[in-house]
Amino acid sequence: MARHGEILDSFKHKVDNFDFTNEEHVTCLKMVLIKCCDISNEVRPTEVAEPWVDCLLEEYFMQSDREKSEGLPVAPFMDRDKVTKPTAQIGFIKFVLIPMFETVMKLFPQIEEIMVQPLRDSRDHYEELKQIDDAMTEAQKKKTENMSLGGKKK
């Protein structure tokens, strides 16, 4: 992911006037397609994608736990105290996956139905989960406030 922005920006500059006979253009396309393949988990059905998301998040959390225990800085997207699955996935889908796949779609419009729309559906799924999480957090907060007041209402 270190060069994601650089690779995508280079492709964006070429895509509107893409030339399949230009070796530089084709090489750039290959790099973007490899990136699409590498991080395309959310294109797959939720029941297939979600277990992989869980594994990835757990790997991140274990790494950040270790970094914390060693006094090292922790990447915010890896910190179990700051990240939820819905917020992590919403950000990744909205700001990484959809822009990349929509750019590829300019060359290959047929991927909209089979790749881009599933990404949008996945984003919507995680936004619904986030709303549920937020409502549960708010309910728990109110319950805790009421308990700290001895069960009295404000």
UniProtKB/TrEMBL annotation:
<keyword id="KW-0378">Hydrolase</keyword>
<dbReference type="GO" id="GO:0004114">
    <property type="term" value="F:3',5'-cyclic-nucleotide phosphodiesterase activity"/>
</dbReference>
<keyword id="KW-0479">Metal-binding</keyword>
<dbReference type="InterPro" id="IPR002073">
    <property type="entry name" value="PDEase_catalytic_dom"/>
</dbReference>
<dbReference type="InterPro" id="IPR036971">
    <property type="entry name" value="PDEase_catalytic_dom_sf"/>
</dbReference>
<dbReference type="GO" id="GO:0007165">
    <property type="term" value="P:signal transduction"/>
</dbReference>
<feature type="domain" description="PDEase">
    <location>
        <begin position="1"/>
        <end position="133"/>
    </location>
</feature>
<protein>
    <recommendedName>
        <fullName>PDEase domain-containing protein</fullName>
    </recommendedName>
</protein>
<dbReference type="GO" id="GO:0046872">
    <property type="term" value="F:metal ion binding"/>
</dbReference>
<dbReference type="Pfam" id="PF00233">
    <property type="entry name" value="PDEase_I"/>
</dbReference>
